Amino acid sequence: MTWLRNAIRCAAGVLLVGAVALVLPAQAGVASARTQSQDAGRPRVAMIVLDMSRALTGVQTEDGRRAALRYARALPSGVRVGLVTFSSQWRVALPPTGDLGELAAALNASRRTGKSAAGLYGALTAAESAVAAAGGARGSRLLVLSEGETVPPAAFIPAVPVDAVTWYHDGDDNTAALRALAAASGGHVAAPGDVAPLAAAFPAAGPAQAPAGPHRAGDAAAGTQGASAPSGSWSWELILGLAGVFAALLLAVLLATGSLRRHDRGQRLEHQLDRHYSVGRGVKATDDEGKATVTIVGWVGALLGTDFEQRLARRLDLAGIARKPAEWVLLGTAASLVLAVLLTLLTGSPLLGVLLGAVAGWLGMHVIVSQRIARRRATFAEQLPDVLQLVAGSLQSGFSLPQALNAVLRENSQPAGGEFSRALAETRIGAELEGALDRVADRMDSTDLRWTVMAIRIQRTVGGNLVEVLRNTVGTMRERAQLRRHVKALSAEGRLSAYILVALPLVIGAWLFIGRRGYVRPLYTTSFGLVMLVGAALLVVLGSLWMRKLIKVEV
After folding, report:
1. CB-hemisphere CA count at 13 Å for 171?
2. Which CATH number fits the domain that encloses residue 126?
3. Which residues pair with 502 in a beta bridge?
4. 8 A C-beta contact, residue 146 and residue 169
């Protein structure tokens, strides 16, 4: 079988290399298509921010109106134009529109009000908000026409590039602040007579960016629908790459954990006997495991450390998972890697995909072990009354307590059979039966078994009828189990409400991410969105813990 393992290793390596070669270009293509599709159906917006302070003369004000109109007429087809006027205050005079007649009317209706241009930065904020409200693409721009009368130095830099048209009249005109604002935002500076060339910053609209004015609403909607298709389509290279990554990781994990080994029945029995009864079990691997398995598992075991490996081994033993700690960590790492690749392709952000994949993989493996432990302990608690009833019957028939517990083993009901088998094995090497049963109670976190052990100790110390004590204990356990089921039925409505309230934001978030990804994209692409996302996650966790306390009734 050596040739088969070598062939599989070679196939896994070829698959992994080929998959990476396919995934990386495909991911770049998907990211590029996603970026283009986001802007393809969105209008480009030019917001004119016009100074209407009394510091300007009437001639300068009229020059500003004419310059704004020349700039709007020089814009390519499909660019929407809006108007914000300001002095010491600001006002949105016209939301983005494709009708130049409306712009001309808004310019003619604007009047000088305040004495200074101190409201410039509020006007820039309003213009930037108007661009976002109109769904402006990343090619949108702002145009400021002002002489900078008493304008303070730059208070902030807008995310949208700012072009500046300045006059110079007297000593309190702060044109330097306007020039610094344009330079910091990636804009240009021009004189009132040279405003038309600033419109060249908008490239001519392509087929996907049709004019978005009212007269082309149907075409814009059609273009939006046509442009949204690439964001949801996966090329065959990407699909093959994902399949190759998954297959390579699966083969690697199977090779590392030895799941591809084929034994006949005699070889499996020999391996089990050697593992359970040899002095160096778990350390020396058989020849059939292969050097690759020994090397990988050894490396992971060395990285885990003795303390962590022992704690994980105890948890896996409690959960009934027949895996070594190193093998379990390898499985978790492979799952995290697959999740990281998938989330990177879905979100388009490698950093976010890797972080979410690692956290999701680690939490998933931890939750699996915890749930298996809880389920095993609950099953043990359900089996305990029947086990004690069987022990009481055996004692009444004349068996000793160890013989009665041995009868439980013959029933082979797991996990009770395995746990009591552990206790009997400890008694065979000199441990007290009560101490061994106490350790089983601690492993299974069973209060009922602790009470039973206490009753056995009292009976052995002062004497009495142990059969009657055990049957009374069994009756109490069954009454408590019945009461517990009754309470569980009464609290079912609260538990269902808790499940719905916790799952609702997750389901809606997943639905929006799949169907309207652009709507939720700011949540994981902006700092403010990430803060909101983390805050929402913390609130969901706190709410789930609070509801768990409310619906959990101790019996």
Report:
1. 0
2. 3.40.50.410
3. none
4. no
For residue 91, tell me if it sits in a domain. yes
- Report the distance separating Cα 37 and Cα 23, nearest Å: 20
Whether 338 maps to a domain, the answer reads no
Boundaries of domain holding 550: 491-555
Residue 158 CA to residue 47 CA, distance in Å, equals: 13
* 197 and 214 housed in the same domain: yes
CA-CA distance, 413 to 546, in Å (whole number)?
37
pLDDT of residue 340: 84
Write the single-letter amino acid at 528: F
Contact 69, 111 (CB under 8 A): no
Q: Tokens at residue 6, please?
A: 């070598």
CA 139 to the chain's CA centroid: 30
Given this model, what pLDDT does residue 10 score? 52
With a CB cutoff of 8 Å and minimum separation 6, the contacts of 69 are: 100, 103, 104, 107
With residues binned 3-state (H G I as helix, E B as strand, rest as coil), the percentages for the chain, rounded to 5, are 70, 5, 25
Q: Which three-class secondary structure state does DSSP give residue 205?
A: coil
Q: What is the 3-state secondary structure (H, E, C) of 271-311?
A: HHHHHHHCCCCCCCCCHHHHHHHHHHHHHHHHHHCHHHHHH
How does pLDDT run across 345-404, given as a tens digit for each residue? 877 677 777 888 888 888 888 889 999 999 999 888 888 888 888 888 888 888 888 888
- Residue 344 CB contacts under 8 Å (≥ 6 apart), including other chains: 27, 350, 352, 353, 354, 357
Q: Are residues 470 and 548 in the same domain?
A: no
Instruction: Let me know whether 452 and 496 are in one domain.
Output: no
| 98 CA to centre of own chain | 40
How far is residue 342's CA from residue 336's CA, in Å, rounded to a whole number? 10
What is the C-alpha to C-alpha distance for residues 88 and 119, in angstroms, rounded to an integer?
5
Count of domains in the chain? 3
Question: Residue 94, SS3?
Answer: strand
The DSSP result for 329-346, as a single string, is HHHHHHHHHHHHHHHHHH
pTM of the model: 0.48
